[in-house]
Design a protein that fits this description.
Helix content: 25-40%
Largest sheet: 8 strands, mixed
Shape: globular
CATH superfamily: Alpha/Beta hydrolase fold, catalytic domain
Radius of gyration: 19 Å
Strand content: 15-25%
Number of helices: 9
Amino acid sequence: MIRLDLRLGIASSVIKGERSTTAVTIVFEPDRISGSPLVLLVWPGGGYNRSYFDLRLPGRIGYSQAEYHAERGSIFVACNHIGTGGSSIPDVTLNHSDIARVSAETARIVSAKLQAGDLNDRLPPFPDLFPIGMGQSYGGLLLTHLQAEHGIFGGVAILGWSGICTEVKNSSGTENVPSPAEMQGTDVANNGLLHPYRRSFHFDDVPEDIVAEDLRGYPARIGVPIPRWSTEFMPGGPNFSPERNPLGPNVVVDEAAKISVPVFIGNGEVDTVPDRRAEPAAYRQSPDITTFVLPRSSHMHNFAGTREMLWSRLDGWVCSIKANWRASSGWYDRM
């Protein structure tokens, strides 16, 4: 298994005259790649970085989604949003579309390097490849913008985010959660097991030490140690100013309606999507919509004991759309 950690230069013309960099980790098995490879470009949720997709937990195995897909012949590219986890912190104020534009450029740069054979001496040029976009939680919102506004993927997987209405409930079943300032210095901030999102984020069989570390101080994690899969800022950095509140109805309803490639909608048994069976209606131009509910999983799917069921469904889905929808997706005309 080979991992490449890269910083990609983003031209100043992409976001408001400011040069920037984005951080990515590319995971692949050279001997498993053949023909025109699948390239999975994935973005995490708010408060998380790209390591969420490549979890390597002390004393535990089988938590890396990146390794799972790489072992099956895909090139897995875990990306950080601008303003998070090793990507540069912008001085300018960004909204959802700005962040999506930077991520689209990240995808173009990675694809160009793969096509030219410029990434690694174990990877030959792949002039013919098939890119898939995947976004978890807030990353799903931003991927919806990316595909609607730039249309560069042959398919998109939206995990734990709604094209209609997204909501996060606390342990009492309501949406009222203490603000980061209110939590600072309290037992809730210092002990993730007490966090009001515990049930929404982690099913009851997730090991308590993982839950405690993951939710300690979430989302701001002010004054507490943060795990290696987390990040200090939300996507866009400290100056982020979204055009709409990310939670609630109709946040990306216009963008979701513009997506014209196959869509995979994945959620946990407990998640942020109120009506999972209604979700296909959001993607009215998509020719192929798959829905999947991961049993015994909450919102943070990659910590669930059943996580490989989701990865297996995703692997089968990306292989099928590559075979069935390649000619009609037109992604190669838009790169």
